[in-house]
């Protein structure tokens, strides 16, 4: 059992606290993840925009067993879901990968995507160009830093959006027909990364329909219709293309 996460706004400081409890009867495991995420973390800030902690309980009596740093778990779990979606949904011949954003999720996505797939070119764009250049200098492999979103996504086969944008930054007229997009960043009902044209022209897959219809501003504000959950594709219930 895993209900949709509860999000508590920290309005004074433009932040949020998310609580994500789960119980697995099959594994007899009881846990919850607590995550804080704050908008507008400046380039000079030493505090990341997202910070997470995972608590593990003894399910028979509720005793706290472990407190774990959830930052790495969150980064790798999110990137893994994007990679699974890409495995099933990307164009058959995908040569160009584009990442929009240069934060923690950009690094975790780059790591697993370059491990699992073979791209001839990787591009990155970030609102702060210094962070994009730092990313390109830090990761293994050649990454092209782009000065605009339009330049970054032109002709790209796979696009990953991992930004804190609250208004659309990616527009349908810029995207190659048939491209696969992993839209990760707009996790609040009033946040957007993709414009209406792109949302309504796309075949829309989500990890959880219940969560998307509660939390995803891209889905809610565009009125786009969800075609399937990723799990339905993996099980063969819904087609990938």
From TrEMBL:
Its main location: cytoplasm. Keywords: Cytoplasm, NAD, NADP, Oxidoreductase. It comes from the Eukaryota. Pfam families: OCD_Mu_crystall. Its EC number is 1.5.1.1, 1.5.1.25. One of its GO terms (molecular function) is pyrroline-2-carboxylate reductase activity. Signal peptide: none annotated. The keyword Iron-sulfur does not apply. One of its GO terms (cellular component) is cytoplasm. It catalyses: (S)-cystathionine ketimine + NADH + 2 H(+) = (3R,5S)-2,3,5,6,7-pentahydro-1,4-thiazepine-3,5-dicarboxylate + NAD(+); (S)-cystathionine ketimine + NADPH + 2 H(+) = (3R,5S)-2,3,5,6,7-pentahydro-1,4-thiazepine-3,5-dicarboxylate + NADP(+); L-pipecolate + NAD(+) = Delta(1)-piperideine-2-carboxylate + NADH + H(+); L-proline + NAD(+) = 1-pyrroline-2-carboxylate + NADH + H(+). InterPro entries: NAD(P)-bd_dom_sf, ODC_Mu_crystall, ODC_N. Gene3D superfamilies: NAD(P)-binding Rossmann-like Domain, ornithine cyclodeaminase, domain 1. It is found in: Cytoplasm. Belongs to the ornithine cyclodeaminase/mu-crystallin family. Catalyzes the NAD(P)H-dependent reduction of imine double bonds of a number of cyclic ketimine substrates, including sulfur-containing cyclic ketimines. Under physiological conditions, it efficiently catalyzes delta(1)-piperideine-2-carboxylate (P2C) and delta(1)-pyrroline-2-carboxylate (Pyr2C) reduction, suggesting a central role in lysine and glutamate metabolism. Additional substrates are delta(2)-thiazoline-2-carboxylate (T2C), 3,4-dehydrothiomorpholine-3-carboxylate (AECK), and (R)-lanthionine ketimine (LK) that is reduced at very low rate compared to other substrates. Homodimer. Binds the thyroid hormone triiodothyronine (T3); T3 binding inhibits enzymatic activity. This is Ketimine reductase mu-crystallin. It comes from Pan troglodytes (Chimpanzee).
């Amino acid at each position: 059992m895993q209900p949709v996460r509860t999000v508590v706004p920290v309005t004074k400081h433009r932040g949020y606290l998310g609580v994500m409890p789960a119980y697995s009867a099959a594994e007899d495991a009881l846990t919850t993840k607590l995550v804080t995420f704050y908008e507008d973390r400046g380039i000079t800030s030493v505090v990341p925009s997202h910070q997470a902690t995972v608590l593990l309980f003894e399910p028979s009596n509720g005793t706290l067993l472990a407190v774990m740093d959830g930052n790495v778990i969150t980064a790798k779990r999110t990137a893994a879901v994007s990679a699974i979606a890409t495995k099933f949904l990307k164009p058959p011949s995908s040569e160009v990968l584009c990442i929009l954003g240069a934060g923690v999720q950009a690094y975790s996505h780059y790591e697993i995507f370059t491990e699992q797939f073979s791209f001839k070119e990787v591009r990155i764009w970030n609102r702060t160009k210094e962070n994009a250049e730092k990313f390109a200098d830090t990761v293994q492999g050649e990454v092209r830093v782009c000065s605009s979103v339009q330049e970054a996504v032109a002709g790209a086969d796979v696009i990953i959006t991992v930004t804190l944008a609250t208004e659309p930054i990616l527009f349908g007229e810029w995207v190659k027909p048939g491209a696969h997009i992993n839209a990760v960043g707009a996790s609040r009902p009033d946040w957007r990364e993709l414009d209406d044209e792109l949302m309504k022209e796309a075949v829309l897959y989500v990890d959880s329909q219940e969560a998307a219809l509660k939390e995803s501003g891209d889905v809610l504000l565009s009125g786009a219709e969800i075609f399937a959950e990723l799990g339905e594709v993996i099980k063969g219930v819904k087609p990938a293309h």
